[in-house]
Amino acid sequence: MAYILIADDNPDITDILAAYSRKEGMEPVIAQDGEQALEFFEQYKPVVVLLDVMMPKEDGYAVCRKIRSKSNVPVILITARGEDFERIMGLDIGADDYIVKPFSPSEVMARVRAVMRRMNAVPVQETKNDNQICISNLTINLDEYSLYIDDKKMSLTKKEIETMWTLAGNPNKVFTRDNLLDSLWGFDYYGDSRTVDSHIKRLRAKLDTAEHPDWCIKTIWGVGYKFEYDG
Questions:
Q1: Burial class (CB in 10 A: 0-12, 13-18, 19+), 11
Q2: Which one, of 138, 126, 199, 210, lies nearest residue 163 by Cα?
Q3: Longest dimension (CA), the chain
Q4: Is the per-residue pLDDT at 127 higher than 70?
Q5: Distance CA 125, CA 170 (A)
Q6: CA torsion, points 118, 120, 126, 130, in degrees to nearest 10?
Q7: Is the entire prediction scored with pTM above 0.90?
Q8: 106 by DSSP, 3-state: which?
């Protein structure tokens, strides 16, 4: 049985999302607060999680951080607030998508299908094995969702590691901002190029805490980004 965890303290919302989840062939598990969401996550091992940001006891951001510290299961945040900085914060702590209320249940299910497809469709570099990329002093392991520069493990979010997997898996290939939005956030993500630029800026700042003279994320002005490797 494939479970979907729906965490929201509004029964009107959980009831309709539960009904639509059953139509998708998933069994809904309903949590009414953040603590219960974490308890049910451990108990049922859901294949995807829908988290309301504003919940009693623990908010959706806190729950997302705790889930992401132990699992790469897709997480979609749902909130009544849609400011850019809140959406970006949600993605930076490891959420896979972000939906603003009011929403249609069909849209939510489309987002669920999209994030689950992306979990099974991450680009792979042909000359490397299916789960690891090694270039110069860079090692990315998708099984562990880890990234090392030399022997230093970098503290990156899930989305940042997926970005590096996409770029480093295709050395010297230019990705437009739209390419990255589509491949990393999905075709139905309501974002813009500022999301990609902010994301890359924070990723670079983390990577630059270690030496990597043979490679870098290079900006191609007016187009996008590429993983430039001189080896």
A1: exposed
A2: 199
A3: 57
A4: no
A5: 6
A6: 130
A7: no
A8: helix
